[in-house]
Write the structure tokens for this entry.
Amino acid sequence: MLLDANIETKILVSEHCPDHEKHGVFLDDRIEWVKVVNKIDDEIIHWRDYSQPTGKVHDTFFDEVDFISESFVQHLTDVDACIMHDIHYQGWHLVHNVAIRKAQEQLPNLKFIAFTHSAPASRPTKTEWPFSARYSPMPNTIYVYPTQSGIPALAKQYNVPEGRCRVVSNSLNLSEFFSNEVQTVINKFDFLSADIFVVYPGRLTTGKKFEKVAALCGAIKKVSEGKVKVLFCDFPSKDIESEKYKTLILFEGCKHGLDYQDIVFTSDIGFQHGFPRSGVLELFSLSNLFICPSFSESFGLTVLEAASKGNFLILNQAVPALEELGKKLNAYFMRWDARNFGFDTRESYKPSEEAYYEENARNILSLMRENPILYAKTMTRQRFSPEWVWNNQLEPLLKGY
């Protein structure tokens, strides 16, 4: 999150931290690695677990504190905020806990954020220094826990008001599990925060009725006032000039309530000849609504693909294959022009097609909101992404105290 926000970041580790074990984000060249002293007179400092509230520390404990404290001061002088992870909580980090408190005396303007990810420890009735550091507040420090339910216990452990505690949720970075193609889409199209995210794959032909998908999504956005995003995984067709049809699709979407930036064609972001099928399945795991107003289908494999990834289904009831499949999948039906066996049908909407879309949009939104699985899927994508956690919890914490 820090690197994505272009914040200069250094990580303080023991001087004996093995560099060859770096992996993932820790391989990023933008990170400055800082080695904190971990030996005195060429003797390694062995961390000892002091989880008890009273007792005695080993003979060299305070000498080790002094050495480590001086190292902290050296490396934190040019820092605006220092994030600590379980340093105040873990008994085997007591030497670092006491050392950072001593260093703080020479760093009065440095902000500290103390993360605890374990269940807060019960505060003992009697403590002695230095063991009491595990239960004592440090000046200019905010204490952080991943859930609101743990804040009262966290405040009791460190004997601070709950107002000095904050929630920063654990985040699920879904994009890191996806293919490079899907990550390209995520980087170029902001849909992770959308209330409604629609993926519609297909050949860019009028028979697939892309414009009807855009129009219905516009109506959904209009009646919900939520954030709606539509991704068309398209590939060229000889039936109509692609750019001409895209213009029509955008026009219909915007006429009914979308903004131009709410619609993206994968052919416009580097996939001119189609988007990988496996990538479409990955995108379906992120979307929550699938709309198929197609004029004609012999089966509708994409319907099964969308259903398998937990999407609310809206199908064209006038197409026999879609009606048959949709009844088996408990889909929501609407009606558009269609091809039957030996004849075509044409729909007439009263009082208007726009009113028809808006009426159904309200029904669709109501059903989606009442569906606990869809709600949980959408909430996970929206509210527990690194982007949301950064924008709503961590960045305000860094700036706000």
